[in-house]
Amino acid sequence: KDCIYALAPSNLPTQFFSSGSDGLVVKWDLSKPNEGELVAKVNNTVYALCHIAHQNQLVVGQNFEGIHLIDLATKTEIKSLKLTDSAIFDIQLFEDRLFVSCGDGSVQAIDLNTFTILKKSQHSQAHARTLAINPILRHVAVGYSDHAIRVFDVDSWQLLAELTDHSNSIFALCYHNHSGFLLSGSRDAHLKIWNTQSAYELQESIVAHMYTINHIAFRADGKYFATCSKDKSIKVWDAHTFKLLKVIDRARHAGHGTSVNKILWSGQNQLISASDDRSISVWQLEFDESHA
């Protein structure tokens, strides 16, 4: 009924979850695209969902309140935790911890088993808008509205790097664990590639979109990634050369009419996108895998 901001996978490859401004959390099945199933409803906007695969649970971030843990088998709330009076922008799972980034600039680590706050880190008063975790390096990168990306040790919360090359708010972060790069997207419309193996040195900067880059997502095998933007487009890239392969937009593919807020890969060749236009689209992509 309103803008869609959040997508999350499920334990079944044909199913996924969405939520947004209307507070509705809905499960979708690609084999029955017109039959959404209501899983939960909260009173405020949801920017972030996090699927807990091994427990068949979903964490819902409710703005100005906190997080809710939903049992997907019974569609009931198991636990909830008041976190903040501001927005909840991102939720990421690492081992037995949830990491939550908030509009008050805090990043909070939550014990998934006890659903209690383990650590609250405050390195900026600006919005902490996006999170990415590298499980190999045990680094967590946080993108802030003060134009900076700060990288921390996931256990000690020691500040390891501060990246300040963007000229506006950071909206998207994603580690490419196959190659050792961190990708960032900003309101400045630039896609930047940082080399984690050389102290996060800036490797490349690309003017990737016309407006804000809202999200970055890699295909599971790491060969390709996609970006989506306030400019209403989705772009698909080669993850090794960073060459642009495909543009999906309204003019060429009857794409979204407003900002594309989130993307999610489904298998190797399908991409799901959610938009301010209140719709979710599923795109069938074709790749020349022989040259990937």
Structural features:
four-stranded antiparallel β-sheet; 1 helix; mainly beta; 292 residues; 1% helix; globular
Indicate the overall shape. Answer: globular
Helix content: under 10%
**Can you give the mean pLDDT?**
94
Query: What is Rg?
Result: 18 Å
Order of helices and strands: EEEEEEEEEEEEEEEEEEEEEEEEHEEE
Summarize the model shown:
The chain is mainly beta and 292 residues long. The protein has one helix spanning 250-253; strands spanning 4-9, 15-20, 24-29, 32-41, 48-52, 57-62, 66-71, 76-82, 88-94, 97-102, 106-111, 116-122, 128-134, 139-144, 149-153, 159-163, 170-176, 181-186, 190-195, 201-207, 213-218, 224-229, 234-238, 244-248, 260-266, 270-275, 280-284.
Topology:
Elements: E1 4-9, E2 15-20, E3 24-29, E4 32-41, E5 48-52, E6 57-62, E7 66-71, E8 76-82, E9 88-94, E10 97-102, E11 106-111, E12 116-122, E13 128-134, E14 139-144, E15 149-153, E16 159-163, E17 170-176, E18 181-186, E19 190-195, E20 201-207, E21 213-218, E22 224-229, E23 234-238, E24 244-248, H1 250-253, E25 260-266, E26 270-275, E27 280-284
